[in-house]
Automatic annotation (TrEMBL):
It comes from the Bacteria. Pfam families: LOR. Belongs to the LOR family. Gene3D superfamilies: LURP1-related (2.40.160.200). Signal peptide: none annotated. This is Tubby C 2 family protein. InterPro entries: LOR, LOR_sf, Tubby-like_C.
Length: 155
């Protein structure tokens, strides 16, 4: 299953639309005013299904992930010199790839969970999320939002 994740061109806070391959809306992501990034994920009916919340006052960036109100894990930036590296404290997933080029793979115990890459030559940030199991789509989206928010914070 592929999802197309596009940042909105005009918005005061981080706002994104996430589409299925056929062009229908899968999720809408809206940023909120808070200390650190707070991104709420809504399904196509407008119900809040997830949140990515940056923890403030940490040495390296950390983002908590919630499905509804339930805490499901954290994405943490690891200490590294040349390339950014991340640790996912959720689902037993690992991250492999080239974050400088915005291309990476999420790998679980049973194999590849998702491949994520950034499309270039677009007006706004645009990612493709190729998710092996549709049940993992929300968590893959939350991970991608956390990495994008961390990179935007540095710039």
């Amino acid at each position: 299953m592929k999802l197309l994740f596009k940042q909105r061109f005009f918005s005061w806070f981080d706002s994104y639309d996430v589409y299925y391959e056929d062009g229908t809306v899968a999720y809408t992501v809206k940023g909120e005013l808070s200390w650190g990034h707070c991104l709420r994920i809504y399904d196509s009916r407008g119900a809040c299904v997830g949140t990515v919340q940056e923890k403030v006052l940490t040495f390296l960036p950390k983002f908590e992930m919630y499905e509804g109100e339930r805490y499901v894990g954290m994405v943490c930036r690891k200490w590294s010199f040349l390339r950014p590296k991340y640790r996912i404290e959720c689902c037993g997933w690992n991250v492999e790839g080239d974050f400088l080029q915005w291309d990476y793979t999420l790998v679980g115990t049973s194999g590849v969970v998702a491949r994520v890459w950034k499309e270039i030559l677009n007006w706004t940030d645009t990612y493709v999320l190729d998710v092996a199991d549709p049940a993992d789509a929300l968590r893959v989206l939350m991970f991608t939002l956390a990495v994008d928010a961390e990179k935007c914070s540095k710039n």
